Amino acid sequence: MSAGAPQGGGTLLNATDFFGKTDVGGIEKFKTVAFRALLEQKLEEELQQTKQENERLSDANTKVTRELQDLQTAFDANIDDRERVLAFKSKRLEELASKLREYEAINASLLQTMNGGVDSESGNNSSVATSSAAEPVAKETETRARMMTLINSGKPLFHALDTCKEQEYKQLYEESQQQCAQLTQTALENEFALRETRMAQIYKQDSEAQIKELKSQLAAMAQEKDELEHHLERKLIMENDRLRREKEAELQAFHESMRTQMRTQLDVTTQRTVEENERVQLELRYQSSQLEKMIKQIDDLRAENKHTKQEMHVFEEMNAGLSKKLKFYEQLFAKMQRKDEQRSRQSSNQQPRTPKTPRDPPASRRTPRKPALPVLSAVNPSPETPLLYGIGSPHGSCFARDDDTFQSIRYPELDVDTVDTNTSYQLNSITDVLEKHLQSREFTKKQVVAVLRYHQDQYHRRESPNVVRDSARLGRTPVLKKKLMLSKNCYSPSNYGRKIREPPVYDTGCFDQAKGVISAI
């Protein structure tokens, strides 16, 4: 909470930098925030000091406890050592006392042996020795054995009485002095050990009392520390709750003021963004509608392209059919020419021979006389078998019949093998057929030109931006509906929608050749 911390420029911030110059309660808010920051900092310092003191006391308690344990261990070890020393010294004293009694028994036995039990001193000594020698019986037996060994070896068993007593007393005195010195030293040592043991026991009691006092002080300090810690925690929690409630109240008031400001005035950037979004949405809707129109146009163009391909296929079929017709006409003309030549030769052979005049041409150069061609209106075919399509019929080249039924249906009277050679009906029929064919071909050429113009008009209408086609007419091409007029005689509903196609432009060389053949006939 460094409310007044300096920034990068090194200048201190004031209340107006945080809350603005227009805020009336900015200084009060700044004071409140600063006071709370100082209070929190103080609480944190107190808590830190309490934690450090607690750690120091815990370390001191651990150290005192460790020293007490070491002292207790040392006391226990010293007491055991002193007890072992005292037990050893007492055992040693018992051994020395037993040796002293043995020596006294030996001395008594020697005196009894020397005096034979007559003197009163020896009697008294023997009585004492008897009372004391009853105990070490085994050692007396050993002494007697030694004495018998000296006697058997020829050595004197005893010296002179005075000398022996003197030596014996000296030896006993020295041994007694030594034992007394040893016992005195042992007593001194035992007294010193006892004094040390008593001092250690007193020190142990003092240490135990001090340890108990330190433990009580430590428990009191721990309890005081826990109470202080709980008090500080409760105080900190209460202060945090109070600050949180105040902050929440301030935040709620700030939110309310911001909501009021947002309701009263809307930012210019937000308004511009809303307008831009509306404009973009309008543009997107327009582009979507244009895209849908383009997709519909593409679908219509594909359907029209498919329809055009189908018409081209039918035109190719019509071209093949017309080529077959033309080939049939050529064969028919050639056969008719051969029949005419045969007939002219037969007529020339049947005529009577007349004398030749110089003016007559030779027979080889004579050409047969052509019969007079009847008027076209005189040809009256039977109503059951109509001719080709009427003159001027727009469907003369559009509804093609099969090649197998071409002669039997359209030209039943033109069978060359059954034609009467004496009649002029054959040439008139052929002429009528050729004229009608030429008229139908001319009409086909005009029809092709009309179809091309119609498609050009349709293309220009699609390319023109000002022309909007009706959506109800998309996918329908009204080709030849106004220009093609079918006669009642040649209209067939089953063939109309299937046979009508746009015929291609044919080469007219074959028809020119047919005209030459007819003119030659």
Automatic annotation (TrEMBL):
- Polar residues composition-biased segments: 118-133
Q: Where does this protein reside within or beyond the cell? A: Cell projection, Cilium
Q: Which GO terms describe its cellular component?
A: ciliary basal body
This entry's Gene Ontology molecular function terms read: microtubule binding
The entry's keywords: Cell projection, Cilium, Coiled coil
Coiled coil (UniProt feature) = 36-113, 166-231
Domain of life the protein comes from:
Eukaryota
Which residue ranges does the record annotate as region Disordered? 118-139, 336-381
Family label? Belongs to the CFAP157 family.
Q: What is this protein called?
A: Cilia- and flagella-associated protein 157
Q: What organism is this sequence from?
A: Phytophthora megakarya
**Lineage of producing organism:** Eukaryota, Sar, Stramenopiles, Oomycota, Peronosporomycetes
